[in-house]
Write a structure and sequence with these properties.
This is Thiosulfate oxidation carrier complex protein SoxZ. By secondary structure, the chain is an all-beta fold. Helices cover 0% and strands 50% of the residues. It has a single domain, classed as Sandwich (Immunoglobulin-like), CATH 2.60.40.10.
Length: 103
Amino acid sequence: MADPILIRAAVSNGITEIRMRLTHPMETGQRTDAAGRTIPAHFITRMTVEHNDRVLVSAHMAPSIAADPLFTFRFRGGASGDSIRVSWLDNRGETRSDDALVR
């Protein structure tokens, strides 16, 4: 199982900011190891962010995104104690989903 998604969510002046780090190698399939063998592709293909079970972001991703990507975005309408869920699916079928509360 993959490492937890680090999620920070805070509301200020009616704007909720969500910061998240998705721990993932994000291998493109174009690099080689020290022995010259191709490192197989392994990257997140889809990420979803939900606020109180309502989808805020549904993103299709590509292998060109850096390892352990960090995303930040803001939206109106969150409140302290609301739930945030971040989920991803990668090209190998592995998944991860984690939750946090808005501060």
